Amino acid sequence: MSSLIRWRPSLEWMPLRPFVRLWDWDLEEFEKDFLEPVSKKEVYWVPRVESYEKEGNYVIKADLPGVEAKDVKVTVEKGCLTIQGERKMDREVKEKEVRRRELFYGSFQRTMAVPEGVKTEQVKANYHDGVLEITAPMEKRALPKKIEVEVEKN
Questions:
Q1: Which pLDDT band holds residue 103 (cuts at 50, 70, 90)?
Q2: How many CA atoms, within 13 angstroms, populate the side-chain half-sphere of residue 33?
Q3: For the residues of 112-143, what is the DSSP string, one character each?
Q4: Residue 137 pairs with which residues in a beta bridge?
Q5: Is-contact 138 118, C-beta < 8 A?
Q6: Which domains does the chain have, with CATH numbers?
Q7: How many Å from the N-terminal Cα to the C-terminal Cα in the chain?
């Protein structure tokens, strides 16, 4: 299971164009979005991730710029890996001073299925320069098997 959020620049101008995305909302949300200023809305975000196999390990990398390592939690349960945490807003910048805000703040959670054969009890997480790297060894039987293609000569 993965979470995706499409960035729609028109959200910034939502109070000026209330009918642009009407088909995406139920009426309660529409009323809230129409009446509430953009800067006061609670926006959800999820980190972007990539996953791959390398040297017998399953690797997941998540971009978490501006998130402190102490605010990140990684759990593995029932074949799913969950990354959760929070990016905190800089309190020194006052709301009235902000001219443009494209960064998302607040809590996030990203859950994804772990492939069969990953040794979840040996998961390790490393955080460096805003990138969370999670690695876990894979059982040898779960690694891809290379099959040579034979060429038949006439």
A1: confident
A2: 20
A3: EEPPTTB-GGG-EEEEETTEEEEEEEB-GGGS
A4: 57
A5: yes
A6: 1-41 (no CATH), 45-139 (2.60.40.790)
A7: 49
Q: Does the pLDDT at position 63 exceed 80?
A: yes
pLDDT (0 to 100) of residue 99: 77
Alpha helix (H) residue ranges in the chain: 27-35
pLDDT at 82: 94
Mean pLDDT of the chain: 78
List the structure tokens of 12. 């910034």
pTM above threshold 0.70? no
Radius of gyration of the chain (CA): 21
Pairing between β-strand 49-54 and β-strand 80-87 as defined by DSSP bridges = unpaired
